[in-house]
């Protein structure tokens, strides 16, 4: 007779996500995961696979939790440009907040730590960025159609610039204790939308 799991896999996955987000992939050992999750190594392997597979599942969970609220915010009916500005300013505020900035963004962290040499991680990062770029592009197209964005602006190029800005805000915010640096950068980028 098969044994039943004596732990909640969803809670364990969330705990793994938090540990990876705080420490990074390489700095998190299987022993760290065993200690942090409070379950045995064999149970981790049986439920999630390897450390790498667990990391990718945690990254997927992070992505599923983070993108939908941004997509909803940028897809609401009505003026689109205020929503774009609000998203950029929220990223800047979070990047400057001492309680939030030190972990950065798990997608951005993965891009710098794993994506250059890990094709599976790179695909997940690219998928996240493609989705964010698409929702930004859609909002900017709507803004242009509604007369909020000048006709001579390229919504796709602006969406790509904002994507890079948002990721850069996370990196600089994580490494810098100067909140003005990220706030000034965000406001300068938003001025391009006028």
TrEMBL record:
Keyword line: DNA-binding, Transcription, Transcription regulation
Protease found in the keyword field: no
Annotated DNA-binding residue span(s): 29-48
Source organism superkingdom: Bacteria
Alphabetized Pfam families for the sequence: TetR_C_13, TetR_N
Cited Gene3D superfamilies: Homeodomain-like, Tetracycline Repressor, domain 2
Domain HTH tetR-type: 6-66
InterPro entries from the UniProt entry: Homeodomain-like_sf (IPR009057), HTH_TetR (IPR001647), Tet_transcr_reg_TetR-rel_C_sf (IPR036271), TetR_C (IPR011075)
Name this protein carries in UniProt: TetR/AcrR family transcriptional regulator
């Amino acid at each position: 007779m098969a044994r039943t799991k004596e732990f909640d896999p969803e809670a364990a996955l969330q705990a793994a996500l938090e540990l990876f987000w705080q420490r990074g992939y390489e700095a998190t050992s299987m022993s760290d995961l065993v200690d942090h999750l409070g379950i045995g190594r064999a149970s981790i392997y049986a439920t999630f696979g390897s450390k790498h597979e667990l990391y990718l599942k945690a990254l997927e969970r992070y992505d599923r939790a983070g993108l939908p609220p941004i997509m909803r915010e940028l897809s609401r009916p009505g003026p689109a440009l205020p929503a774009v500005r609000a998203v950029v300013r929220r990223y800047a505020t979070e990047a400057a907040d001492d309680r939030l900035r030190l972990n950065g963004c798990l997608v951005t962290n993965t891009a710098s730590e794993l994506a250059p040499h890990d094709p599976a991680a790179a695909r997940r990062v690219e998928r996240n960025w493609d989705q964010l770029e698409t929702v930004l592009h859609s909002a900017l197209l709507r803004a242009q159609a509604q007369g909020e964005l000048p006709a001579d602006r390229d919504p796709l190029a602006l969406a790509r610039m904002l994507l890079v800005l948002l990721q850069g805000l996370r990196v600089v915010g994580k490494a810098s204790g100067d909140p003005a640096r990220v706030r000034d950068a965000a406001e300068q980028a938003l001025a391009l939308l006028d």
